[in-house]
Design brief:
The protein is an alpha/beta fold. The protein folds into two domains: 121 residues, Periplasmic binding protein-like II (D-Maltodextrin-Binding Protein, domain 2, 3-Layer(aba) Sandwich), CATH 3.40.190; 105 residues, D-Maltodextrin-Binding Protein, domain 2 (3-Layer(aba) Sandwich). The chain contains ten helices and eleven strands. It has a six-stranded mixed beta sheet. A five-stranded mixed beta sheet has the order 7-6-8-5-9, with helices on both faces. α6 links the parallel β6 and β7. The chain is globular.
Length: 289
Amino acid sequence: MAKFALSPRPDRDRSRASMRCVSIVDRTVGVFAAVQHRILQAAAALLLTALSLPAQAQFRDVLVFGDASVRAALDEANKLFLFENGSGIVVTYGASAALAKQIESGAAADVFISADVESMDYVAERKLIKPDTREKFLGNRLVLIAGAGSNMTLAIGQNFPLAQALGSGRLAMADPAAGAAGKYGKAALEKLGVWASLADKVAVTPDTRAALLMVSRGEAPLGIVYQTDAATDKSVKIVATFPESAHPPIIYPLAILTKSANGVAPVYVQYLLSPKAEAFFEKHGFIVY
């Protein structure tokens, strides 16, 4: 009896091949699902870790209240801090006494840079700063300025003829009731015996930068500003420098505020007190302590 070889059944082979493909797909899907599950688990763990970190450890902008006179130098120093640390600095500039009042009223801030000891004492007495963070930061000088094109010459001394030098013009200076520069200026003019003669000749400005602008624009023939302010504007020149003995020492203290929970604030303060930041302030004419 003859033997016949059985030929393969195409439908059966296709079925087996199809089953193998399904099996491979199932395994691939399973592996992908497992990997995806592990990725989701890792992401969730990272999220939980971030959420569990204390607020102090997270990067946040440092909110600063700073006297207007430090604007140019501080803005430059802050750019380097941002570059090196990745944390921005948001500064509210103004007159020190006015800023102290805002802090007392509950304004949100981390660091206060005052242009006078009295304004820092004001917030310290109300327990609004962390006492152990208070530092003697900068020093400055008080100067009499005129427009760059002025031929004014005047020596500052006891009973010097400031009122006569003004003629029909006015003396631009920060408000003694609100600005540190104004307080220093009034103290100097009183000690030199000329304040009384200027009763109707003073143009009071919100801060020293505004006084500088008045002289720069020619709206006042003379002004009293910080030496560092005069150095920032080529439209003015220094006529004379007030004797340091004529007014209280010009000291800029800084401190971290009591309500600050920003962990970057201490890092920022240490940076301001470091040689890295020192160069910016010396460049603008500040005395660095």
